[in-house]
Amino acid sequence: MPSTLLPFEKLHNIRDLGGMPAADGRTIRPGKLIRSGHLADISDTDREHLARLVDMIVDFRTTEEEGRQPDREIPGAAYYHIPVIDSLTAGITREKEADQDAISLLLFKPKEALEYMKKTYTGFVLSDFARSRYTRFLDLVLAHSREETGSKAILWHCTAGKDRAGIGTVLLQEILGVPREEIFADYLYTNECLKEDIGRLTRFFKQKAGSDAPVIDESLHYLFGAHEDYLATFYALVEQKYGSTEAFLREALYVTDDKRLALQDAFLA
Questions:
Q1: Distance between CA atoms of residues 147 and 149, nearest Å
Q2: Residue 68: how many CA atoms within 13 Å on its side-chain side?
Q3: pLDDT tens digits for 133-142?
């Protein structure tokens, strides 16, 4: 089963990993691990709901993104800004104003848009900066897991909650022993959760381009959607460079056996 979409007014892709199958026949505990899009435009009701759910927030957006649309403060929640990339990049930030010129170059080039996004996912493996950021994230999750019983959830997000937050989710799922087919299915579930947002962005860029050509739909589908090829590209490069996902976690992200067991004990039931 995929992660559970939570009912919020302004957050269309906020999901609890609780209930997903994991190591040794166990499942992920509900109410502990939550992925999301940014929290800049949430309603007052959403803010109150989040205050009841989470006590730690990790923001993967760039400094520029965070400055343009800062998260609303969530009472009682510690906030950590850990940018995974060091500059705005078309297709992964969802910042219309910042990305629109770059995206316009790919509007009529769906093959290039597909390859561009696949290259983005190779960056999550090859970039020293990205790997160090994900290491920091996993260390925070581990620290959170060691807090006193009764702690709330940790929430992590980028702008849409698809690429940067998606890989953060994949890393946690691997550590917790979620079967690979379940990881892919949950990653692709993002498309259903973001269907409304993708439609809105497609209309925006079509209007800006002054064209209703179907090729634009295809290009934006690649830029704004979650696709199996992207995650397959990530895994293929991990296995090519490190031999296995376990070796990547251990050698590149410093997830020792003790850390893995501690995370499983904390988040699995």
A1: 6
A2: 15
A3: 999 999 999 9
Domains of the chain: 4-267 (3.90.190.10)
Biggest alpha carbon–alpha carbon distance for the chain: 56
pTM to 2 decimal places: 0.93
C-alpha 144/C-alpha 134 separation (Å) is 15
User: Do residues 197 and 160 make contact, with C-beta atoms less than 8 angstroms apart?
Assistant: yes
Q: Once rounded to an integer, what is the mean pLDDT over residues 175-204?
A: 94
Identity of residue 4: T
Element housing 217 (H / E): helix 214-224
pLDDT in tens, 69-119: 999 999 999 999 999 987 644 344 444 444 555 677 788 888 999 998 999
Nearest 5°: the CA angle 93, 231, 63 is: 25
Tokens (6 digits) for 149: 């019983």
